[in-house]
Specification:
The complex is a heterodimer of chains A (319) and B (306). Chain A has 319 residues and is mainly beta. In chain A, 5% of the residues lie in helices and 54% in strands. With 306 residues, chain B is mainly beta. In chain B, strand 5 and strand 6 form a beta hairpin. The chains are: A mainly beta (319), B mainly beta (306).
């Protein structure tokens, strides 16, 4: 499904490279909020202790380069959490390497956050775990992981999962984008002589503390049933969570109109119900996002009974 | 004066003719395309053929956001109309499933026939799948592993078709010339190198793990409660063996029927299958701690151009 933003439009802004990110970072200093941060159309070394998200996918996609479209492995997660990140790229014709890092230096925390994270890579080494129902070999155009447009074309293949956990990741990244309100603590920039691999980002260990694996924050869930005005369950309704900054993740109702969607403990979310044949609704029967009351995710328990009743659209016009 | 008048008439004619309808001589068919509950299917394609056996379309139109279309035709005659959209079932006028049974629409030269409507049912995955797989075969293999049980079923028959459905509505009953089964593994773990590869027309995507230094690869395995997780594969088993060598080719086991079930408790088998899709899930999902039905502790993702 198409998301709310156009990845292609971003990708057409060619070659801002890490230098632009550096300029951006210098302007915002550390620990601040940014609407979005992006690095694209380069060939950076990317390293992180971990990228984690609720509702994620790995699909084959394309990015735009000056030389034309280039195929890429697109890793996308919603409710993105990143534990230390490093991006480096040779500059000045390989005479030097620019390195940008962000993070708090503490492996216990997943300090860089955004509503979504999208990484385009040509290859990556990572300890990869996927949870929930993991679908291998999906038609990439049918994969929906929330607000970002996966840019998938017919014929491309994907893997979709409820949770994606990529640790100790080291790869070659053509583009990295974080969107929604992004919190990026302690951005640092460094230019060192030399353009070799040893001058840039190195593979980081998987996050451990006191010899124990560090787990990402706990998640709770919301569940309910979506029915039409006559009380008949509606399958295929897109149920999406929103925070004030925008959309987080989305699921579809099953054959019985039921859904269950996850969010990190501590989040406050509104729930949107959308189906092309029915009028849009929000939790509590609200017609618009503004009128819905936020639901606080306070524990790992499932908050049941977040149901919706959706009236059918007038036909044949769209709602 | 005469020239000016002509220009005005021409301009008026152009304005009047601005409906998306008319072709050079104004021959057109119009109607609406809606879904099973009557909502517009914007972006659906309407294609005209000159006969029930003609394979080459003569005209095409796209359905507007209000569900209407106007199909300009090269000439009057009897036309056979096909209505299609990804994730919907294709229909021919008048609600026919095939071109051979389509009802023709007669339209005179330079005239417009309206009310040629179509209703397209939702496309649903079949064969027991819950999602639409890519048409690219996925090859999953490991040199060694263990599994608690394997069960092989024929595809679930839905609406008279025991087949896999793709997002464009096409179907498959075979993969690389062999029948597609639903192969269900419980507690599937690889203890030696594992590769999951999708081969496209000019690229390949590989997810692999050497399974040695960092431990077993779960493509299922057990959840935290000790229950085996389920791996459903929609494809054909190429080889399975309880020896370290892949000696038994699945083809040699063909003819045993559609339904097989057997358990392998020992470690030390190799496994290879070619599938349109696979689903790995925890029967009792528990987000804390994560059971991770798919876990490659030393994974590599690679995209190669072919």
């Amino acid at each position: 499904m198409n998301g709310a933003t156009s990845w292609r439009r971003f990708a057409l802004l060619l070659v801002p490279s890490l230098v632009a990110v550096a300029g951006f970072g210098a302007a915002v200093a550390s620990g601040v909020l940014a609407a979005s941060i992006q690095y694209q159309a380069g060939n950076a070394t990317l390293s992180t202790m971990g990228v984690y998200g609720i509702d994620g996918a790995v699909v084959v996609s394309e990015i735009e380069r000056q030389t034309g479209p280039e195929r890429t492995i697109r890793l996308a997660v919603a409710q993105a959490l990143i534990n230390e990140i490093c991006l480096s790229e040779p500059i000045l014709g390989g005479a030097a390497t620019l390195t940008v890092t962000a993070g708090d230096g503490d492996p216990r925390t997943w300090e860089t956050t955004g509503n979504s994270a999208v990484i385009d890579a040509s290859q990556a080494k990572t300890s990869l775990a996927m949870d929930g129902a993991v679908l291998l070999g999906t038609d990439a155009t049918t994969v929906d992981t929330g607000p970002h447009d996966l840019g998938a074309k017919t014929g491309y293949i994907g893997i979709e999962a409820g949770f994606v956990d990529a640790r100790g990741l080291l790869g070659t990244a053509a583009a990295v984008r974080l969107s929604g309100i992004v919190e990026v603590p302690h951005i640092t920039f460094k230019i060192v002589p030399g353009g070799g691999a040893s001058s840039g980002c190195q593979r980081m260990p998987e996050p451990t503390y006191g010899g124990q694996r560090v787990n990402p924050p706990a998640a709770g869930s919301i569940s309910g049933v979506v029915r039409d005005a006559g009380g008949t369950p509606i399958p295929g309704v897109r149920v999406a969570l929103f925070n004030p900054e925008g959309e987080l993740n989305a699921v579809l109702t099953d054959a019985n109109g039921a859904y269950r969607i996850f969010a990190f403990v501590g989040k406050e979310v509104k729930v949107q119900f959308k189906h092309r044949r029915y009028a849009e609704r929000w939790n509590g029967g609200a017609l618009i996002q503004h009128d819905a009351h936020p639901i606080a995710i306070t524990s790992t328990a499932t908050l049941t009974g977040v149901n919706a009743s959706m009236p059918i659209c007038p036909t044949p016009a769209p709602c | 004066m005469t020239f000016r008048l002509a220009a005005c008439v021409l301009a008026g004619a152009l304005l009047l003719g601005q409906g998306p309808a008319a072709s050079a001589d104004g021959t057109a068919i119009r109607g609406t395309v809606i879904d099973s509950v009557g909502a517009a299917i914007a972006g659906a394609t309407v294609t005209a053929y000159s006969s029930r056996t003609d394979a080459t379309p003569d005209a095409t139109a796209t359905v507007a956001t209000d569900g209407s279309y106007s199909l300009e035709l090269p000439a009057g005659g009897t036309w056979f109309l096909r209505f299609s959209k990804r994730l919907y079932l294709t229909r021919w006028y008048d609600q026919q499933e095939t071109q051979a049974t389509a009802t023709g629409v007669s339209v005179a030269n330079a005239s417009v026939v309206g009310g040629i409507n179509a209703r397209l049912p939702d496309l649903k995955p079949t064969g027991g799948m819950t999602y639409f797989p890519s048409k690219l075969p996925l090859v999953i293999s490991t040199d060694q592993g263990r599994v608690e049980s394997v069960r092989i079923d024929g595809l679930q028959n839905v609406n008279g078709c025991a087949c896999i459905t793709f997002a464009d509505g096409t179907r498959a009953t075979t993969i690389n010339g062999r029948p597609i089964y639903r192969i269900t593994f419980r507690g599937l773990v690889a203890t030696r190198p594992v590769r999951i590869t999708a081969v496209g027309p000019d690229y390949s995507l590989t997810l692999s793990d050497p399974a040695g230094t960092k431990g077993d690869v779960r493509i299922g395995g057990d959840n935290v409660a000790g229950q085996p997780m389920v791996t459903e594969v929609y494809g054909a088993l190429d080889s399975i063996s309880i020896t370290p060598l892949c000696l038994i080719n699945w083809a040699s086991l063909a003819g045993l029927g559609d339904l097989l079930s057997f358990g392998i408790s020992a470690t030390g088998y190799c496994l290879k299958f070619t599938a349109y899709g696979a689903r790995v899930a925890d029967p009792a999902p528990n987000p804390n701690p994560y059971d991770n039905p798919l876990y490659l502790p030393d994974g590599t993702l690679e995209l190669d151009s072919l």
